[in-house]
Amino acid sequence: MGNLVVVGTQWGDEGKGKVVDLLSEQADIIVRFQGGHNAGHTLVVGSTTYKLSLLPSGIIRDDKITVIGNGVVLDPWKLLEEINLIKSYGVNIDKSRLMIAENTPLIMPYHRELDQAREAEASKKIGTTGRGIGPAYEDKVGRRSIRISDLRNEVILRERLEVALKHHNKLRNYPIKIDWLIDQLMQIKDEVVQYCMPVAEYLNEQTDKNILFEGAQGSMLDVDFGTYPYVTSSNTLAGMASLGSGVAHNKIPNVLGITKAYTTRVGEGPMTTELFDEVGDHLAIVGKEKGTVTGRDRRCGWFDAPQVRKTCMLNGVTSIALMKIDVLDELEEIKIFNKEYITMPGWKTSTIGITKFEDLPIEAKEYIAKIEELVGVEVGLISTGPERDQTIFKKDAFF
Ligand code: IMP
Ligand code: MG
To answer: Which end of the chain offers a freer environment for a tag, N or C, measured as fewer CB atoms within 10 Å?
Structure first.
């Protein structure tokens, strides 16, 4: 039995949703540990496409326990919306299979409004998702968060909100009235608080279980090691799985780095291998590169080997899942950035749905081998399409 953290090694949208969904079959518990509903995870199961932004991907498997850890910032209204959406697909969600850490900070309406107002006014935009993620993390560090457990007691809630609103009302054109906000929160309180649990204690006790920690965003959006200031406001690296859930770091030995066979990025900021030509358009169209959350077009480019080498180092990646290799199928030649560009021949044949490594065209095998060589980590899984079964397992055990 072991624990595994799954992280994106680029700018997010590498395909974590699919891999977490696949590997959650071998897991007992799936934990989100950072980010909020800025994340977008697309899961394709048969004819149903699930788009999750807050709930752990394991939620769609009825026999799994899912956990939202304290490292997440949680919009309680969005939580209930997403729960209702997923329930409408016939999935059972109750407190026996969804737990939220008591010390999880909440995203409030004033966080979202501040996020959007700043983006609108900024001379240099970050291109945030406008969900209030950044301001909510600021309040956490500023010691003025409302945490989920504060909803349990109206006296405490009022005290905490007085502190928060004293700060926020100074930043606003019109003040938020505390009674109005308490009333709003009290309306959803019972529904939200039922999931509230001492998650760290619970998780550390599950020594005979496989726990899968599901990262959101990507390593290049990490607030410390990403392309600052064009980053998200949380640590997205594997180490955060520990701090964002309370599971001791030495209990999470396996790190799977989800890596797209090319590069994409949403929002502003530097991107070394960005393409502005028809190859970039081709990747965007074939790869359906539109943001799950914002619907924005993703910027596309070639694989950036030094970048992934570095993020694998930072995360301690033990195995790579190479995603969307089929998006490269039609290309005449394929480039990899490594100080200068290496050009490799394309395979110009469909790899969609291939499930055995042997069945890949030789050029695709060479491309994968080159990535392994340049990054210095072995590829343990290859994705050849969005569906669960469009996957090559080079390695069968990830926990
Ligand atoms: P924020 O996290 O909404 O503050 O946005 C900060 C930056 O992170 C922006 O460039 C967003 O586009 C990017 N970002 C946030 N979440 C995701 C994600 O799940 N995938 C890809 N990019 C994201
Ligand atoms: Mg995404």
So the answer is: N
| SS3 (DSSP) at 342 | strand
In terms of Cα–Cα distance, which of 65, 97, 101, 104 is closest to 197?
101
State the distance from the centre of ligand 2 to the C-alpha of 39, rounded, in angstroms. 5
- In the DSSP assignment, the letter for residue 293 is T
For each of the chain's 399 residues, which pLDDT tens digit applies?
589 999 999 999 999 989 999 999 999 999 999 999 998 888 888 888 888 999 999 999 999 999 999 999 999 999 999 999 999 999 999 999 999 999 999 999 999 999 999 999 988 899 999 999 999 999 999 999 999 999 999 999 999 999 999 999 999 999 999 999 999 999 999 999 999 999 999 999 999 999 999 999 999 999 999 999 999 999 999 999 999 999 999 999 999 999 999 999 999 999 999 999 999 999 999 999 987 777 889 999 999 999 999 999 999 999 999 999 999 999 999 999 999 999 999 999 999 999 999 999 999 999 999 999 999 999 999 999 999 999 999 998 999
Torsion of CA 95, 98, 104, 108, to 10 degrees: -90
The backbone torsions φ and ψ at residue 148, rounded to the nearest 5 degrees and listed phi first, read -55, -40
Catalytic residue among 37, 41, 111, 168: 41
pTM: 0.96
- In sequence order, which ranges of 254-361 are alpha helices (DSSP H)? 278-286, 305-315
Rounded to 10 deg, the angle between the 362-375 and 305-315 helix axes is: 60
Best of 9, 38, 111, 294 to mutate for ligand 1, by most ligand atoms within 8 A of CB?
Answer: 38
Contacts of 336 (CB under 8 A, 6+ apart): 302, 303, 305, 342, 344, 367, 370, 371, 374
The 10 Å Cβ neighbour count of residue 363 is 17
List, in order, residues 6 or more apart from 93 with CB less than 8 Å away: 59, 83, 86, 87
Q: Give the residue among 48, 14, 52 at the shortest CA–CA distance from 30.
A: 52
Check: CB of residue 267 under 8 Å from CB of residue 230: yes
215 lines ligand 1 (CB under 6 A): no
